[in-house]
Design goal:
disordered C terminus; 7-stranded antiparallel beta sheet; 3 helices; alpha+beta; 7 strands
């Protein structure tokens, strides 16, 4: 009986790991107000390149006391290969970036370090936000400068 349970457990673990790995290769667009993923997109080098530009354009820490807005959306982009970020706040390999698009205000980014500390950063160049949205074929903010 023990070997059967062990084999079933290992099989279940492999299936879950494979499913999670597949999901990690997807770009996810999350509607903050609805609290749901509204679109998934396969990763591609063009989108990952734009996401890397966000990381290279870090300007400052985002200093709002509540960094997640009530309305807007977030775009989670896995980075493969990881991107080295070295500045006065973080020195780590980043394997995922989340770009936050509030209904009001400029987009900013959220990321994690190896110890799962969360960082929110403002960026210098918001033009990359428009480029990113175009590459994802996504426009969800009415009356926004980020519509194409």
């Amino acid at each position: 009986m023990f070997p059967k349970i062990f084999i079933i457990f290992i099989g279940f673990f492999i299936i879950i790991s494979h499913t999670q790995a597949q999901n990690n290769n997807q770009i996810e667009i999350f509607d903050i107000e609805k609290r749901t993923i509204i679109k998934t997109i396969p990763t591609n080098p063009d989108i990952q390149s734009v996401a890397g530009k966000f990381l290279s354009e870090i300007k400052d820490l985002y200093k709002n006391i509540n960094p997640i807005p009530k309305k807007g959306f977030m775009v989670k982009i896995p980075l493969d290969p990881s991107i080295k970020v070295h500045n006065q706040w973080i020195n780590d390999l980043i394997d995922e970036v989340i770009i936050i698009f509030p209904i009001e205000g400029s987009p900013y980014i959220m990321t994690y370090d190896d110890q799962n500390n969360t960082y929110f950063f403002t960026i210098n160049n918001i033009v990359n936000a428009d480029i990113l949205l175009k590459k994802m074929d996504f426009s969800a903010l009415p009356n926004s400068i980020f519509l194409f």
